[in-house]
Amino acid sequence: MGLKVTVLGCGGSAGVPTLGGQDGRGDWGHCDPGQPLNRRTRSSILIDGEHGGRLLVDAGPDLRAQLLRNGVGRIDALFITHAHADHVMGLDEVRPLNRALGAAIPVYATSDTMDALKVRFDYIFRSPTPPVFFRPALTPHIIHPGEVVEMAGMEVTLFRQDHKVMETIGLRLGSFAYSTDVVAMPAESMSVLQGVDTWIVGCFQRHPHAVHAHLDLVQQWRRHLQPRRTILTHMGQDLDWDWMSRNLPDGLEAAYDGMVLEL
To answer: SMART domains, from UniProt (predicted)?
Structure first.
């Protein structure tokens, strides 16, 4: 048995649809509201390792609904790519996961990200209160790009990504890699990605964006790396599912909430 990756959410920071719209039921932009695969919650994945460990990557504000929808009642570790709100504001939801595990959950992040988490969620890092866990409990582990770190029993290679407003961290496990919130990829990180087979990568829209990759940029990276399968995530209202189905070339596809990859 290999890795199983579940795309819990594949939307941008405001999701699709965003709040608003003429009737107050959402602004869909160029996305067809009649296509269910256009409905995107904030970006996160769950990785099930070959030995049974479960690693949650990011914990956005939609986390509770995402875990319920996908039947996830336990995780073994949490990895945070960066401290933006759409990747961390669901951290309070881990309390039932503490109860399932019976312990504080190890969380892996850079020192800058961990400092931000400790300011926003100081109570999560206090002494755990088993078995009831009347507050969530995380045990901090500082990581650095370029390291190989064991998380949930998996050897994870970490690499640096440029999000312009801050650095984010991508990860690679064997032939799989995940890169969200990136607009420029350092040369050493492209080296880490060489030989990847399946790559989930952030792509916010069709046209250039200040802090996120767009479709042509992802295509450039893809031509350089030549993965067998490239899957877009962190998508905004500009990227309609049916348009992408008609226009994306072979080997490039869009993620959808609930997508499962068996690797």
So the answer is: Lactamase_B
Its pTM stands at 0.97
With 90 as the cut, is the pLDDT of residue 258 above it? yes
Give one DSSP letter per residue of the chain, joined into a string. Answer: ---EEEEEE-B-TT-BSBS--TTSS-B-TTS-TT-GGG-B-B-EEEEE-TTS-EEEE---TTHHHHHHHTT----SEEE-S---HHHHTTGGGGHHHHHHHTSPEEEEE-HHHHHHHHHHTGGGGSPP-TTT-SS--EEEEE--TT-EEEETTEEEEEEEEE-SSSEEEEEEETTEEEE-S-SB--HHHHHHHTT-SEEEEE--BSS--SSS-BHHHHHHHHHHH--SEEEEESB-TT--HHHHHHHSPTTEEE--TT-EEE-
Q: Determine the topology of domain 4-144+155-262 in CATH.
A: Metallo-beta-lactamase; Chain A (3.60.15)
Give pLDDT, residue 2: 86
pLDDT digits (tens, 9 = 90+) for 111-129: 999 999 999 999 999 999 9
